[in-house]
Amino acid sequence: MASRTTHSPLSVPTATVLGTPICTYDMEQTMALLGDLLDSDESHLVVTADATALLHATTDVRYQKMFAGATMVTPDSSGVVWALKRKGARVAGRVSGVDLLARFCALSADRGTKLYFLGAAPGVAEEAAERLRLRFPGCNIVGTRHGYFPPESDEVVAAEVAEMSPDVVFVAMGMPRQETFFIDNADTIGAKIGIGVGGSFDVFSGRIRRAPKLFQRLNLEWLWRLLQDPTKIGKVKYLPKFVWMVLTRDR
Question: Does residue 2 surpass a pLDDT of 50?
């Protein structure tokens, strides 16, 4: 069955980084646009892109599929924001998955928007939902499920999600798996918006501490994550290559 995810470009300002158009809206503008998409008749994938994802997309067909299936791509790292500003784009800062999730919980409390959390280890999505319901009274999280299932079970899981009729599905299974899951199963799920949010459930469940505000203001959240989990050095090592490619290719 063909995917419901629209590939139609939105009428928003973008700047291209390593071949991928990135929306330059700030968080408030982004949420206003996504609020409008909740009234559309199509499904929309929102990709929050960091430097590593954009770099992989230059050679990896899985990442290319992810970006090709996106209605909107937002800047989710200081490296991407730097690349946008270097091209003269007026961009206020990051529009990250973890922040979009919190904003949608607030929106849900006001409008009753139905949210579904899919991904992370068993128990994590449930813990995140419990904490977010306390933080945003009235937040309408209609279901949760862990992300520990093989690709051959995707259709079954998508049908489980669809039973709850969510408006927005947050998928936390790592790039590009989380995004391609939504692309491939958008018809079954029927949600208006799908957003890949990586490790956000771990943060909201309390299992991982988010960087202090000072680190966030200084664009050093990546350093905080590395200090908390040294295994993330695998992503950090790609940053010099990203910078070099932006300097040499994005002229």
Answer: no
Q: What mean pLDDT is predicted for residues 95-119?
A: 97
**Sheet (strand 72-75) strand order:** 72-75, 44-49, 193-196, 168-172, 115-119, 141-145
pLDDT at position 208, please?
Answer: 72
Name the strand (E) or helix (H) holding 36.
helix 27-37
Task: Report the pLDDT value the prediction gives residue 104, as an integer from 0 to 100.
Answer: 98
Say if residue 122's pLDDT is above 80: yes
Question: Residue 1: pLDDT above 50?
Answer: no
143 DSSP assignment: E
Q: Give the residue carrying structure tokens 């669809």.
A: 162
Instruction: Retrieve residue 84's tokens.
Output: 């946008």
Q: Which amino acid is at 207?
A: R
Contact 97, 198 (CB under 8 A): yes
pTM reported for the whole predicted model: 0.88
User: Taking the CB of residue 19, how many other CB atoms lie within 10 A of it?
Assistant: 12
Residue with tokens 């730097």: 82
For 184-236, give the secondary structure using H, E and C.
HHHHHHCCCEEEECCCHHHHHHCCCCCCCHHHHHCCCHHHHHHHHCHHHHHHH
**How far is residue 223's CA from residue 24's CA, in Å, rounded to a whole number?**
24
- What stretches of 69-212 show up as alpha helix (H) in DSSP? 78-86, 97-111, 124-135, 154-162, 177-189, 200-205
